[in-house]
Amino acid sequence: MDIYAMGYRGTDPENVCRVTAxxxxxxxxxxxxxxxxxxxxxxxxxxxxxxxxVRARPLxxxxxxxxxxxxxxxxxxxxxxxxxxxxxxQAVAANMDYVFIMTSLNRDFRVERLERYLTLTRQSGxxxxxxxxKKDICPDPGPWAAQAEGLGARVHCVSAVTGEGMDExxxxxxxxxxxxxxxxxxxxxxxxxxxxxxxxxxxxxxxRSVDASKxxxxxxxxxxxxxxxxxxxxxxxxxxxxxMWDVSTGLGEAFPEIEALEKACRFRNCGHQSEPxxxxxxxxxxxxxxxxxxxxxLALKREARYSGSAGETERKKQEEKSxxxxxxxxxxxxxxx
Length: 337
Ligand SMILES: Nc1nc2c(ncn2[C@@H]2O[C@H](COP(=O)(O)OP(=O)(O)OP(=O)(O)O)[C@@H](O)[C@H]2O)c(=O)[nH]1
Ligand SMILES: [Mg+2]
Ligand SMILES: [Zn+2]
What we know:
By secondary structure, the chain is of the alpha/beta class. It has helices at residues 111-124, 142-149, 189-197, 250-254, 256-262, 279-285, 291-305, 322-334; strands at 16-22, 27-31, 34-40, 53-58, 64-69, 75-79, 89-94, 98-104, 127-133, 154-157, 178-182, 223-226, 232-235. The longest helix has 15 residues, at 291-305. The two termini are 24 Å apart.
């Protein structure tokens, strides 16, 4: 398979492979000669992640020796939940053109969370697209869609059961284009992958068992998949904890009106509480900015600062009835694959 068809945009395609999955010290690669196992020797200052392009040389045993990490066009990062606060950022996905920010049209929908994903996506350099999933179980998605559209990204309502809205995704999923799927566990990321692949390549969440209240993630590692039409999707496990890392660019884009005011505060690190000469407070009292937006902005800032204690602690809720899962299976069977 041609590396350019896999999204490579550089000028030296010699020995370039794309990372389709990254485990601790084992990498799944796709290169000109197909899939191979990648191994890495020595100390790498930055480890490859899913979506990365690496230069790798075939070894006698059929494995590939990875030699260099190629520059990343885009990179989605979040705070690494395995290290202490403010210690490190975890590279979640690299070289994607779009991030499909997914939330289902039910209790999962939270504007605050969408805003947080939008911030991180804008920092990544990729274009955010909001997908509101499970349209089939939402009698009136209009108000949700309107709320999401208010955040300034394109919004599509889709269903992996009925296929509604899926044709709208064709505009993004052109050959050589990569989209990463992000969103809480259970919103239907893998179901979307399966729908677009035309077959069940990813395991999806079936009926919940009694002990499932622990909050299980059906997808356990990030993976790059090649769609029949030539585009690529990165399926990811739901992110329970999505601490912020560097908010210097993204927050301003999500809250331009507040960021602009802030520059006029007397103190450079004004907390906009009761500091003298606070321009944000003044605007709030004058009714120029919404208290809700300010609340969200401050919460995100707090989270960015203390991301070790914040994050999504809320447990995933039971949202599907087994009847719906069955309906989905029936529908898939009926698609005649
Ligand atoms: N009604 C309905 N149910 C859906 C739809 N898409 C997914 N589901 C159901 O939602 C549940 C979760 O779907 P998954 O695709 O496993 O969710 P996920 O986002 O991949 O979850 P993780 O892998 O844990 O992050 C499953 O029971 C699916 O059958 C949809 O469009 N409509
Ligand atoms: Mg999944
Ligand atoms: Zn202020």
